[in-house]
Amino acid sequence: MTRDDSDDEVKAAKARRTAAVRACGRVLTGAPGPTLGGLVEQLARDAADAGVDLEGRPDTYGDGVVEELETRVAGLLGTAGAAFFPTGTMAQQVSLRIWAARTGSDTVALHPMAHPEVHERGALSVLGGLRTVHPVKAPRQPTAGDVRDVAEPFGTLMLELPLRDAGFLLPSWEELREVVAAARERDAVVHFDGARLWECTPHFGRALSEIADLADSVYVSFYKSLNGISGAALAGPADFVVEAKAWRHRYGGMLYRQFPTVLAALAGLNRELPRLPSYVAHAKTVARALREGLAEAGVPLARVHPQEPHTHQFQLWLAVAAKDLDAAALEQAEQTGTSLFGAASFWEPGLPGLSMTEITVAGPALEWTEADIRAAAADFAGRLAL
């Protein structure tokens, strides 16, 4: 088998799984994204839901509706201003290099599982000339003690809230305040990677503005939880935002027209943001039903992490080969019209045969009762050669 043959098989398998899930009447999690035509139709609905004057002229180089979105985000986060960015990677690069220049330190303290370390191809050092230190290596949020014990000076502490690759983990509110205070003791500024900050309010029991007030700058995403097309915002003090927009231009982020992305973001703030607390609440039911239902059906090791989700996302771990789990998921979708895991795949992050997938509880999952989930879990387990 050639590499091209393998690639073709992977694409064919993905297409088959997507087609099967699209044909399902019920999907708990991992529903495929819309088709191109579906996106065009969705954008028309987003335009109606965005709450802006559609008779006005389109944006040009960041004015108009882009400025409306920036004002909306600054209001939600309680900051003096916000800057729209085409990507979160660009937004965070800009934020961290600004703070490096202002603090006089090119060292950023962050978790080794944080997004810039794992998913950005070393952009912090390659593009920004920055270096990183790790307050903690264990798959958990850093503590105040971890921050105090970093063996060398650093200018910025970056906290990813929640820490996605460790299981969408959050500290408690008091722990977060203590970590920020520990950074201040070391004369460091604090930046929040808040790509998923929108859904953190139930866990912390605080408004977005109170959470953001702990940090010097905050990044938020418009597509991870709000179902936008893409895009991000960087929020903070007025002079910080002015400088961020200058760096945005230098990084190539001053796009001529951005209204499709911005309209989708505004619609997401209007439509999805109010629903996120219900997703977070239901995630606890979904996690318990999956864990107990799969375990009772005889699936080895069936675990969710964290055991009680901190947000509307969590990890599901099973001691079964990923290929067997994916095959069972496809069979269930094709034969029953019901899918537990949608188009999401399992993978084996460490030990062979110990598989994991990420579960996201959103609108479609609200229609599933605990009994529904347990029944589907039993049916899924019955398709595995245990």
From TrEMBL:
One cellular component term from this protein's GO annotations in UniProt: cytosol
Gene Ontology molecular function, alphabetical: L-allo-threonine aldolase activity
Cofactor: pyridoxal 5'-phosphate
Pfam families in UniProt: Beta_elim_lyase
Record keywords, A-Z: Pyridoxal phosphate
Domain Aromatic amino acid beta-eliminating lyase/threonine aldolase as annotated: residue spans: 62-303
Transferase recorded as keyword: no
Biological process according to GO: glycine biosynthetic process; L-threonine catabolic process
PANTHER family, alphabetized: L-THREONINE ALDOLASE, L-THREONINE ALDOLASE-RELATED
Family: Belongs to the threonine aldolase family.
Name of this chain's protein: L-threonine aldolase
